[in-house]
From TrEMBL:
Segments passing through the bilayer: none
UniProt entry keywords in alphabetical sequence: Glycoprotein, Hydrolase, Signal
Lineage of producing organism: Eukaryota, Fungi, Dikarya, Ascomycota, Pezizomycotina
GO MF terms, alphabetically ordered: palmitoyl-(protein) hydrolase activity
Highest taxon listed in the record's lineage: Eukaryota
Protein name: palmitoyl-protein hydrolase
Length: 356
């Protein structure tokens, strides 16, 4: 006789209630996390790896993929200054599809598995590059996109390089007076998210719309819009945009929220007041209407972060893809000092002015 036949109905119900209340022996697995570094950084930098370690402390078992354009760290750093951003985004798209821990992370019922389902974290220029990846990479599905100090609406000025950073100086020298040439737009990375406006109308300038090699496209600012970009941004569950309140590196800092800043009087036009939102060029309005567009700010200058801010953000927006995630207790994280510096300061002078 089976044991269950000896149990009364009330006993069975009690047991079922008790067992369903027990924690699962196999907790839900966190989504993989893509991390894209900023200008002048490299994918194998100690600081970036510490960020990945922190993400794993918050959500144990998180697979971290550090985005790189080259497996050599020095070459990867150079590629943050020089290269074609569209080609870099395309390469990253192909590279992640070849990673066995990312490929097939979504089971859509097709033979051979489905696509790739991840969270994504971008620092500075890595933020808008990740957004470009979301829009352009077929087979990639991003749940939460989080950016810190990014330039989603471009930059209006190029920053001063460190005294001994000749790679940076070379990039800036190429841009001067040649920003919209095909050569510069295909070779100098910061130039590809440089943005100018018509001083009379405040609208994007003709030179920018015609010559921009990256930003004008991924922002869907041209007359012909790409509907797939709209759908992919609107499909995000969360797009969390952090701005540093005292940021002197990103000009204007409000670019991190897609805001427009008048270069003459400094008047800020927020995203929700802009045509790109009202006409929903990029899907941001649809995302906002479902509660998925999140504006955040933190005190300090560019990339002035500490572990507490990061841990709280990771706990809220990353981790397992389950409705129970928000109810789980976040593990206690030992916070020792500030978060790691995201670039190699030893080789730079006045480094805070060049990392976008």
């Amino acid at each position: 006789m089976h044991l269950l036949t000896l149990l009364t109905l009330p006993t069975l119900l009690t047991l079922l209630t008790f067992t369903t209340a027990l924690p699962s022996p196999h907790p839900p697995k966190p989504l993989p996390l893509l991390i894209w570094h900023g200008l002048g950084d490299r994918y194998d930098a100690d600081g970036l790896r510490t960020v990945g370690t922190l993400a794993n402390k918050v959500h144990p078992g998180t697979y971290i993929y550090y985005i790189r354009v080259d497996d050599d760290g020095s070459a990867d750093r150079s590629a943050s200054f020089f290269g074609n951003v569209s080609a870099q985004v395309a390469k990253v798209c192909e590279d992640i599809k070849l990673d066995p821990q990312l490929a097939g992370s979504v089971d859509d019922g097709r033979e051979g598995g489905g696509g790739i389902r991840v969270d994504a974290l971008g620092f500075s220029q890595g933020g808008q590059f990740l957004r470009g990846l979301v829009e352009r990479c077929e087979g990639l599905s991003v749940r939460s996109l989080m950016t810190f100090g990014s330039q989603h609406n471009g930059i209006s000025e190029f920053q001063v390089c460190g005294s001994y950073d000749f790679v940076c100086k070379g990039a800036v020298a190429l841009v001067k007076g040649n920003a919209w040439t095909e050569y510069v737009q295909g070779k100098v990375v910061p130039a590809q998210y440089y943005r100018t406006v018509n001083e009379s109308t405040g609208a994007a300038s003709e030179g920018y719309l015609e010559g921009s090699g990256f930003l004008a496209d991924v922002n869907n600012e041209r007359v012909l819009k790409d509907a797939s970009y709209v759908d992919k941004i609107a499909a995000l569950e969360r797009f969390v945009m952090w701005v540093f309140e005292e940021d002197k590196t990103v000009i204007p800092k409000e670019s991190g929220w897609f805001a427009e800043v008048n270069g003459t009087d400094g008047v800020v036009t927020g995203l929700r007041e802009r045509a790109m939102y009202k006409e929903d060029w990029l899907g941001l309005k649809r995302l906002d209407e479902k509660g998925g567009l999140v504006f955040k700010s933190t005190p300090g200058g560019h990339m002035d972060l500490n572990e507490e801010i990061l841990a709280e953000a990771f706990g809220e927006y990353f981790g397992p893809e389950t409705s129970e995630k928000s109810a789980r207790l976040m593990p206690q994280i030992g916070l020792v000092g500030d978060a790691p510096v995201f670039r190699d300061q030893a080789r730079l002078v006045d480094e805070s002015k060049i990392y976008l």
